[in-house]
């Protein structure tokens, strides 16, 4: 398996605590992450390390179901989690505050298949994943800034 990466950043005009509370609430993410249909079996909030919940995601017309596990969470700066869907992914969300703005940095690593046919599909998926990561952060920014 080959590891692929996605990186996106956004500055949000909202407090770091407000942004952290939003991004660490699994009920909010289907509102902002393109392709994510729902999160289910969400544990009691706030989530903590080791908590798990299920998700349903649509990619290229295919419904993918899997599990999210919280790997690390440190309020209000760090939220890391992993997904298992046949393709493993690791999501790292880092937050910092500067002059009334919160900077949100998203890094995602996922394992990709190595066969030639799979690589061709992977190139399309990589472009889609990058666009969706950027849209995800813009949607978070919009949701939080409209509610300030």
Task: Explain how this protein is built.
By secondary structure, the chain is an alpha+beta fold. It has a single domain (2-146), classed as Alpha-D-Glucose-1,6-Bisphosphate, Chain A, domain 4 (2-Layer Sandwich). 26% of the residues lie in helices and 45% in strands. It contains two helices and seven strands. The protein has helices at 16-23, 116-146, and strands at 2-12, 36-40, 52-59, 62-74, 78-84, 88-98, 101-112. The protein has a seven-stranded antiparallel sheet with strand order 1-7-6-5-4-3-2, with helices on one face. Strand 3 (52-59) and strand 4 form a beta hairpin. The longest helix is centred in the C-terminal third of the chain and has 31 residues, at 116-146. The mean pLDDT is 90.
Using only C-alpha atoms, the radius of gyration works out to: 15 Å
Strand content: over 45%
Order of helices and strands: EHEEEEEEH
Number of helices: 2
Poorly predicted tracts of residues: none
Q: Could you say what the CATH topology is called?
A: Alpha-D-Glucose-1,6-Bisphosphate, Chain A, domain 4
CATH architecture: 2-Layer Sandwich
Summing up helix and strand content along with how strands pair, one would put the structural category as alpha+beta
- Please report the first level of CATH classification, the CATH class: Alpha Beta
Biggest beta-sheet profile: 7 strands, antiparallel
Mean pLDDT: 90
């Amino acid at each position: 398996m080959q590891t692929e990466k996605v990186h996106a950043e956004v500055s949000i005009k909202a407090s770091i605590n407000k942004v952290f509370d939003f991004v660490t609430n699994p009920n909010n993410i289907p509102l902002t992450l393109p392709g994510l249909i729902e999160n289910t079996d969400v544990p009691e909030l706030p989530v903590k390390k080791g908590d798990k919940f299920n998700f349903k995601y649509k990619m290229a017309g295919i419904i993918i179901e899997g599990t999210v596990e919280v790997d690390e969470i440190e309020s209000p700066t760090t939220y890391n989690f992993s997904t298992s869907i046949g393709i493993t992914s690791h999501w790292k969300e880092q937050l910092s505050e500067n002059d009334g703005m919160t900077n949100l940095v998203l890094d995602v690593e996922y394992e990709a298949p190595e066969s030639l046919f799979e690589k061709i599909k992977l190139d399309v998926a990589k472009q889609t994943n990058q666009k969706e990561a950027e849209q995800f952060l813009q949607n978070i920014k919009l949701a939080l800034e409209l509610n300030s």
